[in-house]
Amino acid sequence: MISIALDGPAGAGKSTIAKALAKKLGFIYVDTGALYRATALKFIEKGIDTNLDCDIDSILKTVKIDIRFIGGAQHVFLNDADVNDKIRTSNVSMMASAVSAKPPVRAFLLDMQRQLAKDNNVLMDGRDIGTVVLPDATLKFFVTASAEERARRRVIDLEAIGEKADYNSVLEDIKTRDYNDSHREIAPLKPAADSIVFDTTGNTLEQSVEKLYEIINERLK
């Protein structure tokens, strides 16, 4: 099976790009961030804050996550409920950053991600796909953009789902998440040594997708 890893910081556009690329390639798209967000949602529902002063293992025992492909799109189910919309809020984003730094949570989701790559041609995006989850991926990309560009895009996304967003607050959240993701002890955010770094700053979605599609086709020849 062919596996393509797309890593990068929050808001770089990798999920949107990955969906479009997977469709063009005929691959299954796996949004691993959604798995962490769904897990984070359960912690929020339990009344836990980002300090995670709790028994993580006991909470994980109450988490059941399923990935179902409906109409060709990935839907994430938490305990049999479709949570695709609920996991896209700002507070879930911050909690996802916190829980993803915990070894029990990473171990909990790792097998699920690797099994998908064993069974399918996949395009998988996240923070540590090329470095940890799929270290032997066929191709690896690190998709990035300036913090300011990512904040601008995030405000547009949040307003699209009816959530009020202040640009400066979003920018600070992104910078905080970047720091947390790149400085955590377990699987810090960084490009794999053999990854191709791709900066989307100033690009339209179509421009980024077409350029990456060209690179993938060339490398897979």
Protein model, in words:
The chain is α/β, with parallel strands linked by helices and 221 residues long. The protein has one domain: P-loop containing nucleotide triphosphate hydrolases (Rossmann fold, 3-Layer(aba) Sandwich). Helix content is 50%, strand content 17%. The strands form 2 sheets. It has a 5-stranded parallel beta sheet, sandwiched between helices. A 3-stranded antiparallel beta sheet has the order 3-4-5, covered by helices on one side. A hairpin with a 2-residue loop joins strand 3 and strand 4 (73-78). Helix 1 packs across helix 9 (205-220) and helix 2 packs across helix 4 (90-99). The longest helix is centred in the middle third of the chain and has 17 residues, at 103-119. The protein is globular, with a radius of gyration of 17 Å.
Core attributes:
Rossmann fold; five-stranded parallel sheet; 8 strands
Could you list the spans in which at least 5 consecutive residues all have pLDDT below 50?
Answer: none
Number of helices: 9
Q: How many runs of DSSP E, i.e. beta strands?
A: 8
Q: Quick one: CATH superfamily?
A: P-loop containing nucleotide triphosphate hydrolases
Strand order of the largest sheet: 2-6-1-7-8
Shape: globular
Residue-averaged pLDDT: 92
Distance between the termini: 15 Å
Total individual domains? 1
| H/E element sequence | EHEHHEEEHHEHEHHEH
Strand content: 15-25%
Rg, nearest Å: 17 Å
CATH topology: Rossmann fold
Sheet having the most strands: 5 strands, parallel
